[in-house]
Design brief:
Layout (H helix, E strand, L loop, with lengths): L8 H6 L5 H14 L15 H9 L5 H4 L10 H14 L10 H16 L1
Helix pairs in contact: 2-5, 5-6
């Protein structure tokens, strides 16, 4: 089993630990992309999944560019867009810009309900 500690630049600069919501956002991005948070063969400063995802996912149209190709577009597109938006909110640099646990749960419940239709 591989264990990877995500070394966030915000923590290094500010000294503040990131919230569970931030880490959940990292996990969502990993799930959407099937990529590790840190590149296995590159130094941390050269590859950050969160930074790459922020740039690509900032535009809703770019979702298909980064989503796990093994899904073969076999997923509800609207749910994928919602997951994308939630992930980006969760990894916001400022703590106050991130959703609360309650808000995350509400979005996840909405995504789940939409995917059942």
């Amino acid at each position: 089993m591989r264990f990877c500690v995500y070394n966030n630049k915000t923590y290094i600069v500010t000294g503040h630990m990131m919230s569970d919501i931030y880490w959940f956002g990292v996990l969502l991005i990993e799930i959407l992309t099937a990529l590790p948070a840190i590149g296995e063969n590159t130094p941390d400063e050269q590859y950050s999944l969160v930074e790459r995802a922020r740039q690509i996912l900032a535009n809703k149209r770019n979702l298909k560019e980064i989503i796990d190709p093994r899904l073969e577009q076999n997923y509800p597109l609207e749910s994928a867009f919602e997951c994308r938006a939630l992930a980006i909110k969760c990894v916001a640099n400022k703590r106050n810009d991130r959703p609360s646990s309650k808000e995350v749960l509400q979005v996840l419940e909405r995504i789940y309900a939409v995917s059942l239709i």
